[in-house]
Amino acid sequence: MVKLSKNIVFLLSLSFLFLTKLALAQNPSLLEVNPPEGPSDDRVSAIVNVRLIDGLGGPPLENAVVLIKGNRIWEAGSEDQLAVPVGAEITDGTGMSLLPGLMDSHLHNVNNNKALHAILTNGVTTVRDPGHPFRFYQSLHFAQTKMPRVYLTGAHLDGYPGVYLDQASLIRGTDHIRTLIRDYVTQGGSGIKIYFRLPLKYYETVLQTADFYRIPVVAHLELVDADDAIMAGLQGIEHITSFGTSLADPEDAVEFREAVRENSSYRRDGRYRLWSKIDLSADRVKEVLALAVKNKVVLSPTLTTFERQFGDEAYQAKAFQNMLDFVGMAHQAGVTVVTGSHNSGKYAQPGLAYQREMELLVAAGMTPLEAISSSTLQNARYFRTQDRLGSIEPGKLADLILVEGDPSVDIKAMYAIRKVMLNGEWVDREEVVE
């Protein structure tokens, strides 16, 4: 009887794995944990007289019309091409630009619906929290107001003794990794986050298991060099500082790693000391960039959280300039760069770290249109949800923002969010969240 019971459990486990993979294979677009409600019917609304910036990277279309049917984009084109159906609800976009809803690849939250709603009203319609456990988002189930779409990875995978123990799963071995990832997927996880104390020897298991479930893996690196992680198969790198030890002089990198192993908090200032000494003209920098391009790495630099200016400590300002320059070099080389706010920064206005990040991407060498694409379609690809989100195209979900002015010319216009549409419905930006 005991053997039969074990066999049944084993067969059920195999069946679960098969069905999970089959479901993911049939629906490769990963899902948010809180799909928003949309219109209850297929009513048509129209945004007219607007500058259309569709997120695909091309030039804006002036005097455009976008038709929304239910919760999806129906048609988009010039006013000469599209007729607005009789009875459509019309929004006049004169003097404004229409963009896809912004997507934040790196945001953290702890059961704070008020903060999430504020993010939504500032134009960010989709966020991913890389590394916080599912319980940090229980409040979503009690939300009375609209929330951005939230993608979760579950607690990050860290090595003993860990850093943030309330946010971490400390890995015991390869079987533990497989079990955790399976459990994360069943709870709605749409990615996996590696944290910096997880040894390189576990990366292969993490990556192979995540690939089985067709979910991406991202990592915050400090002790594992970026080139080693990339060669192990990692494609998603969070934080520009994750490249530090692979770019630095080997002796400086060894000193940094040893100090961080001894005291995790050393990295906070140690990053700046390390980056202040990096020679971006060194051959190793070119080699790391070539490797990143070859392996199709995606970088979410979160520059805003590391920003230091002249007036801060001189070595910190120099370090940040190197970080900024390296992002520009990465972009120029062909590395995909996406936008992540990491919630805040010393030089960001409260609640507007995302807009500051877009400014810094332009300061690093991107054009405004490239920064917009990094904030929309490129992030949708990073989330593996580009068939539903990230651009203004027929059939995609109607997550849209109206911006005063022309951010394709001046990225600062992204601070002037005037209206936000989530899943086909306008968001009440003045609504009070309890």
Automatic annotation (TrEMBL):
Pfam families: Amidohydro_1
Residues in the signal sequence: 1-25
InterPro entries to which the protein is assigned, alphabetical: Amidohydro-rel, Metal-dep_hydrolase_composite, Metal_Hydrolase, Metallo-dep_Hydrolase
SUPFAM superfamilies tied to this protein: Composite domain of metallo-dependent hydrolases (SSF51338), Metallo-dependent hydrolases (SSF51556)
Ranges for domain Amidohydrolase-related: 98-427
Keywords: Signal
Record-given protein name: Amidohydrolase family protein
Organism per entry: Cyclobacterium jeungdonense
